Amino acid sequence: MKHTKNKYFRILLIVGLVFALQSCLKNNQYYEDFSKGAPAVELPLAAKYTNKPFAASFDVSTTPTTYYAVVNVASVNKPTSTVTATIGVDSAYLNQYNFTQDSIAKAAQAAYLAADSTNTVDDSSYPPDYSPFELLPDSAYQIPSFAVTIDPGHREDSVPIMILTSKIESGHNYILPITIVNSSLPISNWNHLLINVGAKNQYDGKYASSGVFTHPAYGVLTWDYSKGITQELVTAGISSVSMYPTNTSIGGFGAELDITVNADNSLIEDFNGTTTPTPNTDHYDPATRTFYVSGSYLGGSGPRTYKATLKYLGPR
């Protein structure tokens, strides 16, 4: 009899714990009762990045690169009927995003100046200006169809976007803003895909810099990576990169250097509008991902020369 009572007691204890656990979960801050949620259509990456920009880099090529914008049905169960939707390029949302971020930046600057009468716009801690994103030109992409069809028993479909990387100009911060325009289901708040489109070739990246720069006013300047000197090479074409001016006093070149890598890994260099004479020994070593560059140009106060080694560190 005692054994039977213990058995029933254990059963009641287990049942009680189950109900208690369910109650605790429902009161937990991370609990969400999906059974009460209505199905909605969304852009999963918009949810991941909370409708904010995210980077998508593509190798530079003469042929289009395909990017797939995924549209998803968020629901407890998979749809039992066909779900349709239409996406569109939403420049208005990008403009609103830029306006909001610029307002936030200006408010932070005003608050900084108001916080202390000695604060000025020249302080190193003065909040920076907001740099707005640019709308990706329609010449740099193609969307064959804006229609989305999610079949019964499935949750998602994708829209192919053809990125024409050879049409993407360097030095720009482009966004392709995608929005679900309409749908046969309610549209989720996660509905704005801000794709920060960038084109990168194999030479694009951050490089350890060392070398010598001779300037009429500054004299002979030497630098090396042990002093933390780095340079960024930015894609300018399928096999070309640009390095932009930096402070010559800390090892910069002081002018833009454009580099094109030939098929035999020899280099064509354009330094401040002056092309490096040929032949020369400058080259790119693919085994170590290192550039060996040199050249000269005539400035207002006299000739400038440079000779440097740029060794790949990683993506910029």
Can you walk me through this structure?
- The model is unreliable at 11-35 and 247-251 (pLDDT under 50).
- With 316 residues, this protein is α+β, with helices and mostly antiparallel strands.
- The chain is globular.
- Strands 11, 12, 13, 14, 15, 16, 17, 18, 19 and 20 form a 10-stranded antiparallel β-sheet that branches. Strands 2, 4, 5, 7, 9 and 10 form a 6-stranded mixed β-sheet that branches.
- 18% of the residues lie in helices and 40% in strands.
- It has 2 domains: 40-200, hypothetical protein (bacova_03559) (Immunoglobulin-like); 205-314, Beta Barrel (Lipocalin).
Shape: globular
Overall residue-averaged pLDDT value: 83
Helix content: 10-25%
What order do the SSEs take from the amino end to the carboxyl end, as H and E?
HEHEEEHEEEEEEEEEEEEEEEE
The level 1 CATH classification of the largest domain is Mainly Beta
Could you give a short description of this structure?
18% of the residues lie in helices and 40% in strands. It is of the alpha+beta class and 316 residues long.
Question: Main attributes?
Answer:
316 residues, alpha+beta, Immunoglobulin-like, Lipocalin, 10-stranded antiparallel beta sheet, 6-stranded mixed beta sheet, 3 helices, 20 strands, 40% strand, globular
Give the arrangement of secondary structure elements.
Blueprint: H1 2-27, E1 40-42, H2 44-48, E2 54-59, E3 65-74, E4 83-89, H3 91-115, E5 134-135, E6 141-142, E7 147-150, E8 156-163, E9 174-183, E10 192-200, E11 205-215, E12 219-223, E13 230-237, E14 240-243, E15 257-261, E16 267-271, E17 274-275, E18 283-285, E19 290-299, E20 302-314
